[in-house]
Each structure stands twice: as C-alpha cells, then as structure tokens.
Write a structure and sequence with these properties.
By secondary structure, this protein is an alpha/beta fold. Helix content is 32%, strand content 29%. The protein folds into two domains: 3-218, Rossmann fold (3-Layer(aba) Sandwich), CATH 3.40.50.300; 223-283, Alpha-Beta Plaits (2-Layer Sandwich). Helix 2 (89-99) packs across helix 3 (104-117).
C-alpha cells in the first residue's frame, strides 16, 4: 500500500509547476512535504488526488491509479477551506460522508466522536458561517477523516489555529497514523514537520532538492549548531575557523559550525574564560537545512 510518484511532471502552458518528481511514500507513515509558495506542493497533491492529470509520469496507490472510484480511500484537507457557509455542520458532514459511500447512521456516529474529541459537541446544529475560523478548520478536518481514509493529505492543517487547537489536531493526526493511515502533510512550520515526520521532501521550483529520512538528512548536512550562554563577551568566538554563521542572543550566542571538531575547539577556547551557563551542541534544524538548500527562509 505505498504511494508512488514516478517521473511526475505538470505543465501549465509553458510553465512547469512540477518537474520530474519521483518519490515513494511508505505505508502507515507521516511524510512531510515542504517548499516555499509556488514550489509545486498543492499541484502535486491535486495530481495524487486525481483532480489534475500529470503531463508526464504516473501516480499510483498500491499499484493502481487514484480516481473517482477510489475516492473513498482518500481524505483531503485543502489549504483553501471549502465548506458551505449556510449549511449546518451536521448536514454538511452527512452530505460529505454520503458522497464517500457512508450511511447517515455511520456519519452521525463518527461526527459525535470527533466533535466530542475536539471539545465542540454543541456545534452540530450551528451553521458553518457562525463558527470562528479555527473551529471551521476543525470541521473541515473532520470532513476529511470521517470516512476513515487509508491515505490522508493535509495541506497546511495547522494554519490559523491557536496553540491549544494545534495540539488537539496534532494528537488526532498522530492517532490516525498509529491506527495505520498513511499521511502526507505540508506545513509552513518546520518544527511541526520535525516533530511528526520520519521522511520528507523539500520542493523548490517543482523539483525535490532534499528527499529522504529526517535523520539521514540531518546527518548528511554535516554542519552543527552550538549554543553558548555565558557572563562574558563571546564575540571573539565568531573569529574561530570553521564557524560559518553566528547570531547574538539575549543570553549569549548561537553559532553554526562546520563539524563537531569545531565545537570542541570552541569548548576549549571557553574553558579558561569564565563562567559558562550553557554549552550545547545540536543537530542542525530543518530550518537551517531549508535555508541552505532553497536559499531563503520559509516564512
């Protein structure tokens, strides 16, 4: 039950939105899809869903093309929300569930579970337009998972949510993954991808510039981050050979170094200088890697 994209290309006239993309997304796993706006993420999602046909290449789920007949195995939370504002939440979910082949009874049972879980049971009889943006987002999420899809595509699922609701949704996504759903998700927030995904792909101008397991990507990046908090001036650390970048912080300094050996050099340099409150050597963050590979910060 793997999702495979082989040599997938999508052209709109002379513009190439996705350029020979080949990735395999393992079953029952959460796969992160990153890229600045216009990198080709949403176009890729639409091809996976069968809403757009690739100009070249093919997309398969366990060897078969995804089309209308297999729509019941797929769930999709689009970045542009698409609920009917005048419809009541209950009517909306029954309508969408029925489209996916569910009985009304099953839809209502699932709806009750999810509304309870998201702490909004009283919303069943409210019109969508009466809800806040964040709560509309919860209903949209429920609509994308109510039929228990095997493959779930989440395009910016946490955007517009406050921290409390982000946690609620994150837990729900993890539970679905643990129950065996394959999840592909894109996010502007690097820390969410770092926290949730084992494998990922960073797209840039329609092509994957980084692709693989998060652990391997970090390891092969080579560079490390060093954080130092101390009560004395740390500016001379910037001059040490092998320090690539530096940033002053309220409590000290953050350095990017070429390798672990350089961090040792910094440590020795500090040892005779005075009281060091914190010295930490860390793997590069996904944001560091993104900036290096794409040449710009994500936001």
């Amino acid at each position: 039950m793997t999702l495979q994209l082989k040599n997938v290309t999508k052209q709109f006239g002379s513009f190439t939105a996705v350029d020979h993309l080949t990735i395999e997304i393992p079953e029952k796993e959460m796969f992160g899809f990153l890229g600045a706006n216009g990198a080709g993420k949403t176009t890729t999602f639409r091809m996976i869903l069968g809403l757009l046909d690739p100009t070249e290449g093919n997309v398969t789920w366990s060897g078969n093309k995804i089309d209308y007949s297999s729509s019941h195995i797929v769930g999709y939370l689009p970045e542009e929300r698409g609920l009917y504002p005048k419809m009541k939440v209950k009517e909306q979910l029954v309508y969408l569930g029925r489209l996916r082949g569910m009985s009304k009874h099953d839809v209502l049972k699932e709806m009750e579970y999810w509304l309870e879980r998201f702490k909004v049971p009283e919303y069943a009889n409210k019109k969508v337009e009466e809800l806040s943006k964040g709560n509309q987002q919860k209903i949209q999420f429920i609509a994308s998972v109510i039929h228990k899809p095997k493959l779930l595509i989440l395009d910016e699922p946490f955007s517009g949510l406050d921290p409390l609701n982000v946690e609620l949704l994150k837990e729900a996504v993890l539970d679905l993954k643990n129950a065996g759903t394959t999840i592909v998700f894109s996010s502007h927030r690097m820390e969410h991808v770092e926290e949730l995904c084992e494998h990922l792909c960073i797209m840039h101008r329609g092509r994957p510039v980084v692709h693989g397991s998060l652990k391997e990507i970090k390891r092969s990046f080579g560079k490390k981050n060093v954080t130092v908090h101390a009560d004395f001036d740390l500016s001379e650390l910037k001059q040490i050979a092998g320090v690539v970048k530096s940033k002053d912080t309220a409590e000290g300094i953050e350095l990017q170094v070429e390798s672990e050996e350089i961090s040792q050099r910094i440590f020795e340099h500090l040892s005779s200088k005075g009281f060091v409150r914190k010295f930490a050597l860390e793997e590069p963050s996904l944001n560091d890697i993104f900036i290096e590979k794409v040449g710009a910060s994500y936001e």
